[in-house]
TrEMBL record:
The protein, known as: Extracellular solute-binding protein
InterPro entries: Bact_solute-bd_prot1, SBP
Biological source species: Sinomonas cellulolyticus
Annotated Polar residues bias: 456-465
Record SUPFAM superfamilies: Periplasmic binding protein-like II
């Protein structure tokens, strides 16, 4: 299971999005903005009125509701109507064909460049300027980069929940493994530690020594080894030497623990979100998790003994890798000004402070642990931490939380490409066939590169070289 992002968009949905341009009369070829005066002109105003229709944003918890309430109040007298179901590209295609798109959508950030390339969403640079927001200052630069296409910003980022290692201290102690041996800048030591912690019964794993979350977190591990899935322009680079080295290590790590298939089968049986999770039952030595899993684990805080460690690149630097969602304004939106205002207000410092206050009240009611909010905004992260994150009385969780915040010092993300989902899919397939032994890592990545390049060549950037 991929754990770094709870808001994954399926390949089918992305494929449907790629076909939208043919259905959308407001979407010009090559990702350009619509003519001046139309709904997609990129022109925004503070004079708000009418109805604002959103899609994909679901204020189902206290964090979402508090932000939504603040933003909705801020755009009055405009009224807000929400479709709270997850964004669906096929549904969006039908809406675009009928000229009835929402005014504001919430999508996975990796999808933003694809929609921008097809002219389905409009640039927000003038939206940011109108409200006095500098994106690289308001949000983590890595998050802004992921929603930037052809030099323009097309989304408003929210959340940046970085990955880290969460390890079971009891499993480690039993195997004679220290936290220092979970240093991912030393890949051979990770394999050795995994072998020490790994256990099998009846030919099947009973304890996974080290779980790198494959194929879901494959791009993270490429970056650990100095590689990447794409270059700065978004062009695929899957078959680079660093990537081959990374995938070769991934296979070595899996083979040292009984092989990918048996590990995956064992993981599928784990009660990841329940009271008998893998840390309660001591079924794992160390796993790759996004920051949000600390909240899940806190439900069993009295039954687990855990320690956190940052993920480090080969040069010894911690890497704060994350995905997330973004708010975007469709090109054919009928009320882009209200959409712009709502998105800016929902990700403002005041909104995140309100969300932090609401989360703190929930934590108090549940007698839980406040792990903070990883909002996508450095100022908001600090404000919530300063106001609400202190000693919890549980040293293990205090250390986990402190480690999670340390990962924000050097943020990274998948990147920005109009062929982003195709690159992700190609990488995932390459990892699966390499780990299964169907292909060697070099061949798997070469084939993946060929597949991703075909998708790249269909984009406006690819067609222009």
């Amino acid at each position: 299971m991929a754990r770094t992002n709870r808001f994954g968009i399926t390949a089918v949905s992305i494929a449907a999005a790629l076909a939208l341009a043919a259905c959308n009369p407001a979407a010009p070829s090559g990702g350009g903005a619509s003519p001046a005066g139309s709904g997609g002109s990129g022109s925004f105003s503070k004079d708000l009125s009418g109805s604002l229709k959103t899609s994909g944003y679901n204020p189902s918890d206290e964090v979402g509701k508090s932000r939504s309430d603040l933003a909705t109040k801020a755009v009055a007298p405009a009224t807000v109507t929400m479709d709270t179901t997850n964004f669906d590209a096929q549904k969006f295609a039908a809406q675009a064909a009928s000229g009835q798109v929402p005014d504001l959508i919430q999508v996975d950030r990796s999808m933003v460049p694809t929609l921008a390339d097809k002219g389905l969403i409009q640039p927000l640079d003038s939206c940011y300027s109108l409200w006095g927001v500098t994106p690289d200052q308001q949000y983590y630069p890595a998050a802004v980069k992921s929603v930037t296409f052809n030099g323009k910003v097309y989304g408003v980022p929210q959340f940046f929940q970085t990955s880290m290692l969460i390890a079971d201290k009891d499993v480690m102690q039993s195997a004679g493994v220290s936290v220092d041996q979970l240093d991912t800048s030393k890949p051979d030591e990770i394999v050795a530690a995994a072998q020490k912690m790994y256990k099998a019964s009846g030919g099947k794993p009973s304890v996974i020594g080290f779980d790198p979350d494959l194929p879901g977190s494959a791009d993270l591990w490429l970056q650990v080894f100095g590689g990447q899935s794409m270059d700065d322009k978004g062009k695929p680079t899957l078959d680079s030497g660093q990537n081959v080295t990374a995938l070769t290590w991934m296979k070595k790590l899996m083979d040292a623990q009984g092989g990918f298939a048996s590990i995956k089968s064992f993981k599928d049986s784990m009660d990841v979100f329940g009271n008998q999770n893998q840390y309660v039952k001591h079924e794992v030595g160390a796993q790759t998790w996004a920051q949000w899993y600390i909240n899940v684990l806190s439900n069993t805080k009295d039954s687990v003994h855990v320690v956190g460690a940052p993920i480090k690149t080969h040069d010894g630097k911690s890497i704060g890798y994350a995905g997330g969602t973004a708010l975007a304004v469709p090109t054919a939106a009928k009320n882009p000004s209200a959409a712009c205002a709502w998105a800016i207000k929902a990700t403002s410092l005041d909104a995140w402070k309100a969300a932090g206050d609401a989360r703190a009240e929930t934590v108090k009611q549940k007698n839980s642990i406040n792990t903070g909010l990883f909002t996508g905004s450095p100022a908001a992260d600090k404000a919530v931490r300063d106001a609400h994150v202190g000693s919890s009385g549980n040293a293990d969780f205090d250390q986990l939380i402190s480690t999670s915040y340390s990962t924000l010092e050097n943020t990274a993300t998948f990147g920005s490409s109009p062929a982003g989902q195709s690159i992700k899919d190609a990488l995932s397939n390459a990892v699966a066939v390499a780990l299964s032994g169907e292909k060697d890592p070099s061949t798997a990545l070469k084939d993946a590169q060929d597949t991703a390049m075909r998708a790249w060549q269909q984009t406006s950037l690819g067609k222009n070289g």
